[in-house]
Amino acid sequence: MPGMRRRDFISLLGGAAAVWPLTARAQQPAMPVIGFLETRSPDMISDRLRRFRQGLKDTGYVEGENVTIVYDWAESFDRLSALAAELVRRPVAVIVTPTTPAAIAAKAATTTVPIVFATGYDPVASGLVASLARPGRNLTGVNFFNNELAAKQLELLRELVPGAAHVSALVNPSNVRNASVALADLETAARARGMQIQVLNASTNREIDDAFATFLRQRPDALFVSGDGLFTSRRVQLVLLAMLHKVPAIFANREFAEIGGLMSYGANVPDAWHQVGVYVGRILKGAKPADLPVVLASKFELVINHQTARMLGLTVPPTLLARADEVIE
């Protein structure tokens, strides 16, 4: 090797070896960042988060390996706007909004960052998208209709409790749009059946306790709990209170029936979260939200907790048991 001693050559190789990994690392693209905006704590939605991450994985993304997720747990609707603006400033590649108020806050914060939502009522009526087939602009997601099923839920409740004439309806007034949609549907259905609806409002743990305290003064025949993120996160409290007051109750999500709630009817929400993960993965690969139609929930489930029915002294009609997607014994 003319003009270069062997020791110098080895030193040159060693120096190059030290530089090559740095160069390779510099050339690797930065890991994409997903912003996750939620009002509930992670322990309250652990199964849904697992399904969301599985949807991401199905499209080739694994948290911590080739994608980063920044979680903002708002804990109250009042903080959503500020947190959404913060995610936009970071910046993030996609914003995930598993509740309608979070989606509305994110939409107000950006017209360019892709947003993938999950909502329980009509996203067109709420102004999230222009149409289901062609969402337009930077939003798309999943609609699982849980807040537009009140009439069907009331029908099922009446079938299980035939003599029910006075029904209490628990809604979250801080989620104004959600509560108004549920009550409008419920009150129309109740009038058609000659039933009376007493509205109970609750936006906090204490207010949930206070709402149930009214049962001591005005005993309802049954309870309707509207589909709401707050109520899902407080499902243990709600199920225990319903049992304590021995009131037959229907809920929007199977997660209530699984822990002792009498009955639930609604879309399979964990499946919706899986689809959110899939859509986020597709957007990270280059798809545009405007080209991804809003996915409509196709699987609705009636779940009956037969053990709870027996504890309440209720006989579940065979026809209702036959229609149930799952009966928990």
Describe the structure.
This protein has 329 residues and is α/β, with parallel strands linked by helices. The chain has 2 domains: 33-144 and 269-298, Response regulator (Rossmann fold); 147-266 and 301-328, 3-Layer(aba) Sandwich (Rossmann fold). 43% of the residues lie in helices and 19% in strands. It has helices at residues 6-27, 46-58, 80-89, 100-109, 150-160, 176-192, 205-213, 229-233, 235-244, 254-258, 269-284, 306-311, 318-323; strands at residues 33-38, 68-73, 94-97, 115-119, 139-143, 166-171, 196-201, 222-225, 249-251, 263-267, 295-296, 300-305, 326-328. The strands form 2 sheets. It has a 7-stranded mixed sheet with strand order 7-6-8-9-10-12-13, sandwiched between helices. Helix 6 links the parallel strand 6 (166-171) and strand 7 (196-201). Helix 7 runs parallel beside helix 9 (235-244). It is elongated and about 60 Å long. It starts with 5 loop residues before the first helix and ends with a strand.
